[in-house]
Fold this sequence. Notes:
Bound molecules: zinc ion
Shape: globular
Strand content: 5-15%
Number of strands: 16
Largest sheet: 6 strands, mixed
Radius of gyration: 27 Å
Amino acid sequence: MxxxxxxxxxxxxxxxFCVIIFSQYNNSMTPEQTANxxxxxxxDFKYLVDEFADLKVMRYRIPGWDTLTLxxxxxxxxxxxxxxxxxxxxxxxxxxxxxxxxxxxxxILKTYSGDRQCADFQDFVVYAKRVFFxxxxxxxxxxxxxxxxxxxxxxxxxxxxxxxxxxxxxxxxAEFKEFVLPIIFDKDLYPMRRSSEQGSDNVTxxxxxxxxxxxxxxxxxxxxxFYNPDDDKPLSYGLNSRLVKADGKLSEEVYRxxxxxxxxxxxxxxxxxxxNAAAENSTxxxxxxxxxxxxxxxxxxxWDEYNIAWVEDNTSFIDFVNGFIETYTDPxxxxxxxxxxxxxxxxxxxxRTNLISSNAQxxxxxxxxxxxxxxxxxxxxxxKAIIVTTLAGDCFPTPPIGINLPNADWxxxxxxxxxxxxxxxxxxxxxxAKESPNSVLKEFAYTQDEVDLCKTYGDLTDVLHTDxxxxxxxxxxxxxxxxxxxxxxxxxxxxxxxxxxxxxxYYLADQKLIxxxxxxxxxxxxxxxxxxxxxxxxxxxxxxxxxxxxTESHMQDRKLIAQWCFEQGRTDNVIGRVSKDGKTYFxxxxxxxxxxxxxxxxxxxxxxxxxxxxxxGKAMVETYGVKIDLDxxxxxxxxxxxxNLKPYGGFLNPEIVPVEQSGKVVDYRVExxxxxxxxxxxxxxxxxxxxxxx
Length: 694
Ligand SMILES: [Zn+2]
């Protein structure tokens, strides 16, 4: 996986993988906020703007926009236009008739003269939104084709009463309907975007537009000819083309100006050139020129040259991804979908992690573990975080929350890779989850106080816990000189995650974080404490099938910590288990005593690690981290199901709008649209570059 996708959008569930997660601007501590009142910071800003089918649509903010210079804004604007002009490519790559269907939907939405209030029309609108959301007629995640919830006859009637003249291409309206309706309504026609069925031809079984008239065996044989085990710098053969069989001969139609998708690529290049005029430095201009050369020629040598120049730029403030990059949608994993992301460095998150890691020794010296197990010289790590300003192609509207590129293994080995997390998207996921009328937080928190704590401080303490976990926790402590580093065997990763989590939990309640200006007051940590216990004992169980045990190491770690503290604090009633209206809740009665328990457990797990005490480690994980109370699990699953939450989330892009004065651009303003359908109709008008069939 080169991308980290957001799995579970609720308080304290975000660190599903051991990825580095940040967010920012969610507290009152940043001076820019008062100095630069920004519409993006309005307290009534709504993150969740639409829900339909199994999807929810959110907005993300661009924090700090007003602190940028005019030139930086111009650069980001041009890169954003270069991103949006690639929109048609992803529709066409996903399926050769996606543009035909999309343009039909657009024509109906814009020109249909009949009743738009009736239930059927509303159902049609839902279908249209699903097509926009998935960049085509197949589910963006599940791969299967979804059908409109209206009768075919009704859809035909919509076409009859709309202006589809632009789409007929010499056909009569009747012939047009005969062609397009089965594509939309016949569930056996083009059923899967990417087929991955064992033992069948997944190239002919997939609807993706990467192969034409070619079988899986033919495609595999074609690309096998380029494989050379002695080549230590192999090109990404086949990455940017469609493989076509005509007159019994195989050939590649390369994505380039003058070739396949040429019209879209010309527009992208036009805006990349404009962007170059506003670039920050010659490094950016250099790799952008290489990208332009690559789009002009389709030459994969140039693609590698571009990636090397790009990955070696670690100093620029603004960055972007624009290209045929990820190969998940191709059943053979050869051909890449087009995507784009425009971003800049998250200064606030970087400031925070720098502050934490520069104090690493203080944290180590003051931790509650035995001095023999402490590092004498401790160095924290700082992490990289970005803010996105425009998403496009395969990253829109469903983006990753982290990016790790380039993909070519030999470039990664010789030149490194860029690994970043996207803080403003993570923040939007968190905030939107709390806006939902049915939230996991509301369902599982016992009191309104807990809900309020989490709403006030939860985003900040959640990322801060992750910062402490990543920047300090994993790097803290040392083994005794005689200890075998592999002594904990199959329990090592769970205990390691627990150790890092406990290090963070212990320090979240420390005055030091307030003194450093990272936490605003001595109440904030309670949000993370209550969220952590709730998640460890209940909400994370929603991801486990009834009857199964906890197996994933991060989940075991959280279960272990919460369960151990619950049981060890029983006599003092540190964490209470209460029941109300037949529902179970866990409530923290004494936060300071809970902190002491976290410290005790940290000391013990550090001892287990430092001494390599396998038996104690095993007992710890098996007793507290694995088994689930069946009745409680059943209850949790039922309560979660009743919330009816949308499993998939996507975004609207903010619009970056030039502000002109006497014919000159004097500023770029950020607007935050709220209408998903409207944004896609506008994009369809403005950024349409390709014909119906390509
Ligand atoms: Zn970790």
